[in-house]
Amino acid sequence: MNPWLALPPGADPAERIRQVGRAHERFLNGHDVATRTHPELMRPVVAASWARSAAWIGADSTAPIDLCGAELRAYRAAHPLARVMPLVRDLLGGLAEDGDHILAVCDAHGRLLWVEGDAATLRAATSMNFVPGARWDEAHAGTNAPGTALAVDHALQIFATEHFSRPVQRWTCTAAPIHDPATGMLLGAVDVTGGDHLANPHSLALVRATALAAEAYLRGWEPARARPAVTALGRDDASLALGDRTLRLGRRHSELLVLLTLHPEGQTGDQLGFDLYGDDSNPVTVRAELSRLRRILGPELLDSRPYRLRAEVETDFGRVRRLLDRGRVAEAVAAYPGPVLPASDAPGVVRLRRMLDDRVRAAVSTGGDRRLLQSWLGSARGADDLELWEAYASMAPDDPVAARRVAELAREYACNVGATSA
């Protein structure tokens, strides 16, 4: 059975709605979801999503409106997915025009940017806040196709009572993530929402094909880079774009390349060795690694005596630093998918990683922007950040999710302190 498909061939939709609905109520009452004893009924991807959703929202929650008006229009116009909307409408617009379906596209945070379809169907969806500007990631809307597709990074369907939030359980949806073809980063997702008849292999294949077509279009649209570009944020191995080639480097070569970008004037082998290995540096090992990296990059890019890059190189972490320098915090947060080479223990990389992560966090912390705080807390970096959860809770005293999360983290930290003291 395809785990991403809502209904296997021959399944009775009405009976499945009743069965999953009963499982949903049992789950809300504290019982485990029977994915092992009844895998044909409860898909593991749905059970896992319910568990994530329950940590954030109640089963009667409605997705909040995150952006609206001129702010939404400006954000939408500048988003990379604006380029592919004519293609998406061409491929899926027929479904949206037949009166039974809604076409939606969201960003990587689950914000709905475009929601299109028949006027009557759109009015019906308004009751659950399935509207442009609403936040439909799992943390704010529970299990749903676009939010869960982003969470698991895979195309899938969510059928009726598989939705965690009860107000959404009359709908069925199919969604697929869309990635930046140059970096592999999530840009958002495309979704078709409608009735139970949407739960079929054809709609899943069509939506996934649309996402792949959007990525192919973006790949062709991407202009040739005048300068080499390094991508190292939120990934253990850096990539280097050289003209029409993209090289993915191993761990040590990724670290060396990042360190070289920090010192355009060049460094000696001893200096690079210290930043790479600390006091355990071995000059022979450093020279061997640099020699291998030079064969990969070519002598036209990597020079020696001192070791330096011969061309000006763009870096994603450098862009974040420039945006922070200019006070453009929202753009910096959007351009910051995660720390620099998070698995690296090279001292020079660790210093850069801590500096940049601290700067982004400090900008979010002191900016007083509620939406930026939400974005940070909804990320892996902010999920356990008690100080910023407390700051957000003070801005949103009526938000039960914030109050619950503050209480949970306070208990966890108190337990950890007690265990350490013992």
Please, could you describe this protein's structure?
48% of the residues lie in helices and 12% in strands. The protein contains 17 helices and eleven strands. The strands form three sheets. It has a five-stranded antiparallel beta sheet, with helices on both faces. It has a four-stranded mixed beta sheet with strand order 8-7-6-11. A two-stranded antiparallel ribbon has the order 9-10. β4 (172-179) and β5 (186-194) form a beta hairpin.
DSSP helix count? 17
Shape: globular
Could you give me the name of the CATH homologous superfamily of the largest domain?
GAF domain
Enumerate the spans where pLDDT stays under 50 for 5 or more consecutive residues: none
Major sheet summary line:
5 strands, antiparallel
Tell me the β content.
5-15%
Write out the strand line-up for the largest beta sheet, numbering strands in chain order: 2-1-5-4-3
Rg measurement, Å: 24 Å
Organism: Actinoplanes teichomyceticus
Protein name: Transcriptional regulator
InterPro entries: GAF-like_dom_sf
Summarize the structure.
The protein has helices at residues 13-28, 44-54, 69-78, 85-97, 119-126, 138-141, 145-152, 201-221, 251-262, 269-277, 283-297, 316-325, 329-334, 347-367, 370-377, 386-395, 400-421; strands at 102-107, 112-117, 156-159, 172-179, 186-194, 229-231, 239-242, 245-248, 302-303, 308-309, 314-315. With 422 residues, the protein is an alpha+beta fold. Helix 9 (251-262) crosses helix 11, helix 12 (316-325) runs parallel beside helix 14 (347-367) and helix 16 packs antiparallel against helix 17.
